[in-house]
Every structure is written in structure tokens, then in C-alpha cells.
Amino acid sequence: MMWQRLFVSLLLLLAWPAMAHKASDSYLTLQVQGEQVTGQWDIALRDIDFAIGLDADGDGTINWGELRARHDAVAAWAFSALTLTRGGDCPLQVTQHQVDEHTDGTYAVLKFVATCPASTGDVALDYRLLFDLDALHRGLLRLDVDDLTHSSVFAPDSRRQTFSGERVSQWTQFGQFLQQGVWHIWIGFDHILFLLSLLLPVVLVRVHGGWRGVDRIGESVREVLWVVTSFTVAHSITLSLAALGFVSLPSWLVESAIALSVVVAAFNNIVPMFNRLRWLVAFGFGLIHGFGFASVLAELGLPQDTLVLSLVGFNLGVEAGQLAIVVALLPVIFWLRNTAFYRRGILVGGSLLIMLLASVWLAERLFDLKLISA
Amino acid sequence: MPHDRPRRLLPHWLAPSFGLALCLLAGPLHAAPYTPTQDTQVLETLPGRAGDATARELATLRAALAKAPNDPDAATALAQRYFDLALARGDPRYVGYAEAIVSRFSAAMPAPLLTLRGVLRQYRHDFAGGLKDFATALALDPDHAVAHAWRGAIFLVQADYAAAQRECDALKRLGRNALAGSCQGLAQAYGGQLNASYDTLQATLSQVSDPDSRLWLLTRLGEVAAWRGQTARAQAHYREALSLGRDDVYLLAAWSDFLLDTGQPADVVRLLSAWESADSLLLRLAEAGTTLQQPTAARHRQMLTDRFAAARARGDTTHRAEEARFELRLRNDPKTALRLAQENYAVQREPRDARVLLEAAIAAQDSSGAEPARDWMRSSGFEDARLRQLAQASAKPNQPGDKP
Questions:
Q1: Which secondary-structure segment (H or E) carries B88?
Q2: Please, where are the H alpha helices in B228-264?
Q3: Does some domain include residue B389?
Q4: ipTM for the complex?
Q5: Which residue of A lies nearest to B52 if distances are taken between CA atoms?
């Protein structure tokens, strides 16, 4: 025996696993709508040849004629290794044979349909293709069951898998979007900084070119209500319009305008321009922020069947998140309102910092740069 | 202070179902299926012809196993042949074939079959499973040198040099001098004794005549010389290995890395232009092409992106070291590179694994991320000057909370 060769190869192998070529995969795509199933299954020609033989003339290549002659055998072999059930067996019927290129070569493409006994309930798959011949073979599944998408991988130790046909309940979905709304406002630094810039001066009043602390917290609360309500009403309008597809703006414009809104709001704390009209600023720029929220919602993918409910959930989440920030912030700044630390350090210094950061964002978003973003 | 634009955070915190949908969208995209028009259109070239020597040999072995499906010797013979083919051609499908045969057996496996199962397990980076099989095989047959050799190799990759040394000693005791010398040479190199390692490998080289062993030893001598800073000597070893005229992915990769490190990317492009099919070599080719700003580099980078995506889709995590290097050097994404390098380092701890971890941590300005590699440098005493510099650079306090 060649022990040396073995040792040689073993060290190479440890360093270079699964290189050069790819292990065997098949790609199975299924759409199950009620009892109707359509599907596509891509299986590597090399794997089919290894299992049932395709190279009729033995020249080491497979041409279209050789594959065409074996189409029935390919379908029979493949379908004998896949069982689809929904309320009982759904027999698979091939509708078209094609081919496609994947990263590691040419694949046979089987398009097929099936009809299941039941139109609701779980969908179960039993996948056995090639496992007896190739233990590293994997079946890569993408499955839509009544518009709900699943993805999974079949392996020798996970041949049988069941996918829930249950839709997520409306209220679960509502709850998910509510959470996303809260979460988005908390991690959406640009929204927070905008709100923060507008809220910092609510504990102060402008008197003869200087600041004076308010006497009672009620005055501040009233001011906060005006600002937050204006912001909310405005962004709810544009969020809904954009999410329902009535209006759309290019994202660079929205993102840049949001950054600009932060710059303006912070600048107003250093050189007061709007004073008691901050609610108007909140409303105007709130319209823009709504488009920003809408792009998040678009990325989440709004379910068509519970469109309005999900939209309301997300919006309420955003409000709840905002409210939490205000509730935490207001007592603190009210308490600090008469200190120099607050007036110079927080109001002026903090606003300067916010302005600086937002200016960088603005430049980044306008010119598609990466300055501070990771 | 926020450093991230909120939109970019999205994929990390999306609810699982949304994340899954995004993964699917981000998966590898393929051209649309089509129907060929000509029967003569060649769709695929198979790895061998029906009548060639390898195919005949495989047919004989398959027939023998078909006649005696429960005979462990027949199974071992065919599975071993498949595995050898996997190594020679770098084709993992043959590993799958071998594993399918071995997995039909469970109880009362003889030592060679157990060892083979261990080898197949370590191939999937199931090192614990592999070590268990080798231990069982050695309990059945304490003189089974192959099991010792593989166990030594796993310990080397895991940076457990004391355990590796015991396997080298066992090989020596069994009189397997070439195996023992190769084992010893690597254990010394990784364990911080480059000079001793060089002498051991040289001495072993003088004892072996078969070209495969010579190629392996010369390649390792090239690496050790390069770590010692002896560029000319390293070059001579690599050239002698190449002059043996055998295709060897590891040699080509090591030589390409040497050329890239010494500023000779044009030679890498010449060397590897016909090796796009090997992922590890494609990576080096893309690096060289990118350095030289060649128009083919963009295509090579895209090919790598597709191949890593395909591996990820099937849940294959054995490419992480290469993928980390790809993210670091070709996609300029040090954060992803560091994550991959860390995941890889938790499994494999050879010098090249340490290097990509250190480089990624430096690029990501995350000193603590490279801590495991620096620990290894300290405990092993590994002597390569480049790695020492990287370790120092990575330890610079560029993060609050780091000790100077």
C-alpha cells in the first residue's frame, strides 16, 4: 500500500476540503396553492448518469439527444424518490423537460404538476433522491404553501419534513408588525435624532433672545403633544400612501431629505428660527420620514391579505416607540432645564453634535459615500 | 455614537421568517431553463469515459461489492478507491459515494473500514467523530498506521501538538519512517521549531523516492523556508516540487501564496489561468488579477461569490477560511471576513487560519477578535516573522478597553 501517498493526501485534504468541484445538490422548487401543485426540479446530469446512465455512446459526454431518449426514465427515477402529501398522496406528473446551467455544470430541469386530495393542512415531503449512492447529496427546497414561503435542505438524516399549511393568524401578524415598528424607531437613529432635536427646547421658552425654563411641566407636555402629534399624523399619511403603492420616491432623495431634516431641526436649537412653530417643522419633515418608514416596511414585505392591519400595526409600533422615548426623556430634561449644563452643553453642544453627524449622513446619502457608516 | 445607518441593520434583526425570505432572494441566481434545439448539442462532460482504466477498475470493484454486499473488504476497497479519486480530482462527489457505501455498515466494522469512516467524517470537519472512529480502529488493531497518521493530522489542525507528537512517535515505533518524518516535521514547524522542522523534513526527503511524497515534502519545505524568511531557498523548493510535473492543488496554492506575498501577481495569473475549476486556486487567481487590475478579475470574483453562495445554500461550512480571505481581500468587508475567520478558527488552527484571522481583525479594527490567534502564537512559539508582525499590529489598542 502507498502509506506515503495516503499521508500526503490526508494533509492536503484537511487543508482543502470540498474544493475544486461542488458536492451534489438538487434544487426543488414547489408552489402549493390549495390542492394544486406546480414544481421544478433541477438535477445534475452527472448525478443522473451515475444513478441510471445517460452516456449511451460511452464517449464521456452527454448530449441533448442522449438525455431526450432517457426523459421517461429520468422522470420515473426522480419521482420514485420524492413523495408529496397533503391529506394524502399527490402524484407528480412531468409537464416539460428542459436543461439549465448551475455553478457546477448542466442540470436536467423537470417541470411538473400534481393534484393533492386536500386543499388545506400540512404539506409533507419525503425526499430520497441519490442518498443510497451519495451520502453528501443534498436536496435544496424552496416551498410556497398558500403564499407562505419555506426553505429547507434534505439530507440523509432529514429525509422527511412537514411544513405547516396553517397561515399565521392575523393577530400574530399584527403583533409582529407592531414589534417591528417599535424596534425600527429605536434603531432608526436619524428618526430619534430628529425627534430629539425638536424636543430638547420644549422645557425652555424664548424670551428676549435668551432662554428661560418653563414654570410647569404642563407647558412642556402641551408642546410635546403638538410636536409628536404633528410628526405622527404627517408620517402616517405618507407611510400609508407609500405602503399602499400610491406614491413612491427614490430612496436617495428620501434618505437625504431625512438627514437634512435632522440638520435643520438641530440648527434651530442653536439659531432659533421656528420657535413656537416647531410643530410645523415636525409636520413638514414628518411627511418625509414617513417615506423612510415605508421603505422599511417594503423590505419586511407587507402581506397582501392583511395589508391594512399590518400597516396599522407597524404605525402603532412606531408611535409606541416614540412615546417611550418621550416619556423617558421629558422628566429628565425638565429637571435639568435651568442648569447651564443643559442650556449650553445639551441644547447647544448636543445639537451641534447632532448637526455634524447628520451633515455627514447628508453628504453620504447625496453622494453615495461611506464616511462613518460601517 | 451610532455608526450604522439604520437601513443597513435590517437583515440582522428581521424576524426569522423575513430573514429566510431574504436569504432565498440572496441565494445563487441561475440562468433560466432552456430547451436545446440540436440533439448533438453537448450538455455535460463526464469525469471519465466508460472504457477508460479508472472506469474499468471501478466497474470491477462495484461488481465485487454487488456480489457480496455485506463483505466489509469489498466495501472498503470500492470506498477507498472513490476516496482516492476524490483526492486526485478534487471532486467531493466521490466522497459522497464512498460515504454512502460505508454508511451501510454499522456494527462489527473491521479497523480499515472504521478508519475510512473516520477519514470521511473528518472530511466534513466532524473531527470528534473522526477521532472516535480512529480510536475504535486502533483498539481493534493498535498497529494500524493509517489511523495514527490521520489522528496526528487532526491534532495538528486542532493545534494540539502534544497529542500529535504521540501519533508521530507511534508511527516511528511502527517503522513508518516517511510518515513519521512528515508528521514530526509539521509538528515541529507548527510548534515553534522551524529550524528543527526544516532539518526533519530534509532528512525525510533524502529517504523517500516516490514522487508524491517528494512533492509533499518539497512543498512543506518551501513553506517552512518562507516562514524562516529564506525567500530564495523557498523558491528553489517550490520549483523543484513543480518540476515533478504532477498536478497538485495544494502545491499550486502554496506557491501562488508565496508569489502573492513576494509581489509577483503576474506569475500567479500565468500559473493558474487554467485552474478556474478549483475554488482555492480561483481565489488566488482573482487576487492576482485584482492586484493587476485585469478585466477578467471581475468575472473571477463573481464566480467565487456564486460558489460560496452555493456552498452556503447546502449548509456546507468547510470553506470558511477561504471565504474569509475572499471577503477581506476582494470584497473589502472586514467585518464579515472576521466573523468567518473566527468561525473557522474555532475548528481549524493552522498557521494560515491564524493569518487570515489576524488580517481580518486588523482590517476590522477589532483587536479582541484576534485574541485566539495571539494566544496560539504565544503558546506555540510559532516563529514566522510576518505572523509575528500581524499579531503585534492586531494587538494595538485601537479599541476602547484594550490594554496597551
A1: helix B72-89
A2: 231-243, 249-261
A3: yes
A4: 0.72
A5: A60
Contacts of A63 in chain B (CB under 8 A): 39-43
pLDDT band at B27 (very low <50, low <70, confident <90, very high): very low
**3-state secondary structure at position B352:** helix
Distance CA B244, CA B224 (A): 20
Nearest to B192 by CA among B376, B341, B391: B376
Q: Percent of chain A having pLDDT more than 90?
A: 32
Residues of chain A positioned with their CB less than 8 A from the CB of B30: 100-102
Helix (H) / strand (E) element for A125: namely strand A123-127
DSSP 3-state of B196: helix
Using the beta-carbon criterion (under 8 Å), do A64 and B277 form an inter-chain contact? no
pLDDT digits (tens, 9 = 90+) for A344-360: 888 889 899 999 988 98
Q: Do B123 and A105 touch (CB under 8 A)?
A: no
Q: Across all residues in chain B, what is the average pLDDT?
A: 87
Task: Encode pLDDT of A141-188 as tens digits.
Answer: 989 888 788 888 899 989 999 998 766 667 777 887 888 788 877 777
Q: What is the DSSP string of B20-42?
A: HHHHHHHSPP-PPPB--S-TT-E
Q: How many domains is chain B built from?
A: 1
A8 contact residues in B (CB cutoff 8 A): 182, 212-213, 215-216
Sheet with strand A25-33: strands edge to edge:
A92-102, A105-115, A36-44, A25-33, A138-145, A148-154
Q: How far apart are CA B50 and CA A357, in angstroms?
A: 68
Does the distance separating the beta carbons of B42 and A61 come in below 8 Å? yes
Look at residues B355, B368, B303, B293 and name the one whose alpha carbon lies nearest to residue B325: B355
Closest CA to B318 of B282, B348, B278: B348
Evaluate whether residue B342 is within a structural domain.
yes
Which one of B8, B44, B350 has the shortest CB-CB distance to A61?
B44
State the nearest Cα–Cα gap between A7 and chain B, in angstroms: 7
State the DSSP string of A136-197. Answer: T-EEEEEEEETTEEEEEEEBTTB-EEEE--PPPPHHHHHHHHHHHHHHHHHH-HHHHHHHHH
Question: Residue B282: closest CA among chain A residues belongs to which residue?
Answer: A20
Q: What is the mean pLDDT of residues A57-80?
A: 94
Please report the residues numbered 315 through 354 in chain B whose beta carbons come closer than 8 angstroms to any beta carbon of chain A: 315-316, 318-319, 335, 348, 350, 352
| Amino acid of residue B376 | W
Domain span at residue B341 reads 317-404
Nearest Cα residue in chain B from A14: B123
pLDDT-derived band of residue B321, with 50, 70 and 90 as boundaries?
A: very high
User: In this complex, is the C-beta atom of B386 within 8 Å of any C-beta atom belonging to chain A?
Assistant: no
Min CA distance, B134 vs chain A (Å)? 14
**Domain-embedded: residue B50:** no
Whether the CB-CB separation of A27 and A42 falls below 8 Å is answered with: yes
- CB–CB of B326/B341 below 8 Å? no
Residue B259 lies inside a defined structural domain of this protein: no
Cα angle: B115, vertex B342, B393; to 5 degrees: 125
- Following DSSP, what letter does each residue of B280-337 receive, concatenated? HHHHHHHHHHHHTT-THHHHHHHHHHHHHHHHHHTT--TTHHHHHHIIIIIS--HHHH
Q: Which residue has the higher pLDDT, B148 or B315?
A: B148
Distance from CA of B37 to the nearest CA of A (A): 8
CB contact under 8 A, B44 and A21: no
Q: Which residues of A are less than 8 Å from B92 in CB distance?
A: 17-19, 21-23, 136
Mutating which of B1, B7, B42, B93 best tests the A interface, going by the most A Cβ atoms within 10 A? B93
User: Whole-prediction pTM value?
Assistant: 0.64
Pairwise CA distance, residues A280 & A227, whole Å: 8
Nearest residue of B to residue A365 by CA position?
B5
